[in-house]
Write a structure and sequence with these properties.
A three-stranded antiparallel sheet has the order 3-8-7, with no helix packed on it. It has a three-stranded antiparallel sheet with strand order 4-6-5. The protein is built from ten helices and ten strands. A hairpin with a 2-residue loop joins strand 5 and strand 6. With 285 residues, it is of the alpha+beta class.
Length: 285
Amino acid sequence: MAVTDNDFAKRVDELISWLRKNGAKFPKVTLSRYADEGRDLRASEPIKADEEILYIPRKCIIEVQQGKECKIGRAVKAEAKGWVSGHTYLAIRMLTERDLGDKSFFAPWFGVLPSNYQKQGMPQYWTDEQKAEIAYTKTLAKTNAVVAAIKEMWERISQVKAVQQAGWTLEDFAWARYTVLTRTFGVEIGKREATVMVPLADMANHEFDRPSRWKYDDKKSGFVVKVVRDLETGVNLTDTYGSKGNDSFLPFYGFCLERNEFNQGRFVLPVSHINGSTCRSIDCH
């Protein structure tokens, strides 16, 4: 069932109250929705260059290590046969918290997360007819690779008794993995590289010329975001998802850019020789 605008506004209020109660600070940032599964961050008032616009304390952040240390994560680490990815441990942590419902510390954040990645445009959920539109492209290859990776990890962890007892399905795991795939940050915590999920900060949309810069601040024990230029009220507070072409944005995040300087095309052209024909690949930017 689709969430109404009034319901979503209530959930946003609950998220904001939860974050502020636990020490988060974001006096000039507001969260809004532009579609059933679309969210963005905007400036609620003018912001000056070098101003810190967001602070999320560590206790409101989910880390890979937490997934490894929770009950099911420990069981997977001990019993799963083969390597288990960091994103999988994050997914385990997400599902563990989701199962707690309103009792979860993170319940207010879960209330505003996307619940349906088909509506978000992820090509993994496209029909065969729709996928035919991107046949023979790197986009389709990456789309299929994501599906294969999720299934591979699920087959690996679903053999663990604790996972079976949790009653999770491949669909549940896929939801958690897409949630992780679309909203993680790579930071350094205490000189240790870490992959984390940060409530509210994860709602920032992509822009190559983003106004924001983020990091984990050890002295403040939290995730901080600053802006590098003056911003007017209502401006979209964007981040960058990396220097990627649409062949990566679509399968990893569910969107494409009309203009993207990182798009590439590959054409295979026959080149005739005396001894027959060979092919030459040409990359075009």
